[in-house]
Specification:
Length: 441
């Protein structure tokens, strides 16, 4: 496992907390984290949560030939897997030193302690026996993997039921759960591991270390014990020297913790058995706690609908009179508007500066229009004077008279004057609009 190393500041902080007998999660030195056990829909499947450390256990079985040296005993197989899903430091498909150490410790705890009666797994001596396989998957790593794995393993073995078998001569018949009820395993006792972390060469001691505490500890001591105070296995690692008094002290703490955990396991198994018998809801989905964040959550209360009219009249009489309501409210502020019922549209209202500029533009346009009219009147008068002496010819034809009016060209001077005035007005208006846009930005 290649975990990200802690900085010197974090290391000093954790060691200082241990010296002051304080822990990050608020526990005391000898306190265990909360243990939660949930079962799946099938027998032999469970999830154990030790704080935030979570382990999934699954038990399966099959008929296989026995070992030559033990023809009348069944076979037990244990396997623990550490996936990157639990922690990014775990490498997939590789047997690390931590994984090998954990697998050996689980085998010594569950197999060498003889907690399962292997002779009861024999079907036909020398020919067929039951092979029990226990698969453990670490789902989340937050320290103390071995304790969580040992609890999950023994719970799954106690919860598992193998199919019933009958033997007639050389013929072996395996019955389905519908034909015959499955048979539970014969378990003598329940060994459980308890871990102790030592700091400063055994000066300070913590029970059930977390993941950060494991990074700064000097060594660890694991004791597997049952509720009868029988030590099944013991292992020390980390290169620390322990005194006899320290080991005896840890064994006494282990006896107390194992008794509490064993009682918790038995209660969980009894509750699951009762729920299955009553036909209740099963599975991991039902065990997930409802952690919804809701607002305006109120308990339902009965509504009294008697004397509603009288209560409404009392409320109306006691209430203040309504304020004056304007049928057509108008916003007097220039340049603003509001969309809604009863509000007049004021998008056409202009501000004072815009009104002044519009008035100036109108004055200039009126002046240019008057000049154009004067020029047109002068042109028409000149045209009349030129046409006075021309005779008017009338035709005697019965056809309709057709009068063709040809536009007369204005003098060049007039055209240039009017065009220059119009250009000047358009330039002024364009310059004013440009100033407005710049001021707006």
């Amino acid at each position: 496992m290649k975990a990200t190393p802690l900085s010197n500041c974090e290391r000093r902080f954790l060691l200082r907390a241990v010296e002051e007998r304080k822990r990050l999660d608020g526990r005391q030195c000898y306190d265990y984290r909360n243990i939660r056990i949930s079962f799946g829909t099938e027998h032999g499947c469970c999830i154990v949560e030790l704080g935030k450390t979570r382990v999934l256990a699954q038990v399966s079985c099959e008929l296989v030939p026995p070992k030559p040296n033990r023809p009348t005993e069944g076979i037990l197989f244990f396997n623990l897997e550490l996936s990157p899903m639990a922690a990014p430091g775990f490498e997939p498909g590789r047997q690390s030193e931590l994984l090998v150490k954990l697998n050996r410790l689980i085998e010594r705890c569950l197999r060498n302690s003889k907690c399962i009666d292997t002779e009861s797994l024999c079907v036909v001596a020398g020919e067929k026996v039951w092979q029990i396989r226990l698969d453990l998957h670490l789902l989340n790593h937050d320290g103390n993997i071995i304790d969580a794995a040992s609890i999950a393993g023994i719970v799954a073995l106690c919860h598992f039921h193998r199919p019933d078998v009958s033997v007639q001569g050389e013929e072996v018949t395996v019955y389905t759960p519908e034909e015959r009820d499955p048979v539970p395993l014969s378990i003598h006792h329940m060994p459980i591991c308890v871990s102790f972390a030592f700091f400063q060469q055994g000066t300070y001691l913590l029970v059930d270390p977390s993941e950060r505490e494991e990074r700064v500890m000097d060594g660890i001591l694991v004791i597997a014990m049952n509720k009868h105070r029988e030590i099944c296995t013991i292992q020390s690692s980390g290169g620390i020297m322990l005194v006899t008094d320290q080991v005896l002290r840890c064994s006494k703490i282990t006896a107390v913790k194992v008794a509490e955990i064993t009682e918790l396991i038995q209660n969980a198994l009894e509750n699951d058995k009762r729920v299955r018998k009553e036909g209740g809801k099963l599975g991991f989905a039902e065990c997930i706690s409802n952690q919804k964040i809701t607002t305006f959550k109120m308990e339902s209360a009965a509504v009294d609908t008697n004397n509603v009219e009288e209560q409404a009249e009392e409320i109306i009489t006691k209430a203040d009179p309504p304020s004056e309501v304007f049928t057509k409210p108008i916003l007097n502020t220039p340049g603003t508007a509001q969309i809604g019922e009863g509000i007049e549209n004021s998008w056409g209202d202009l501000e004072e500066s815009e009104k002044e500029e519009a008035a100036e533009e109108e004055g200039e346009s009126e002046a240019t229009a008057l000049d154009c009219q004067k020029m047109e009147t002068e042109d028409t008068s000149t045209m009349k004077e030129t046409n006075k002496d021309e005779p008017i010819v009338l035709s005697d034809s019965e056809e309709e008279e057709v009068v063709i009016l040809e536009p007369q060209e204005l003098p060049r001077r007039m055209r240039t004057q009017t065009s220059t005035k119009q250009e000047n007005t358009t330039k002024k208006a364009f310059n004013k609009r440009r100033r407005k846009k710049r001021a707006a930005y």
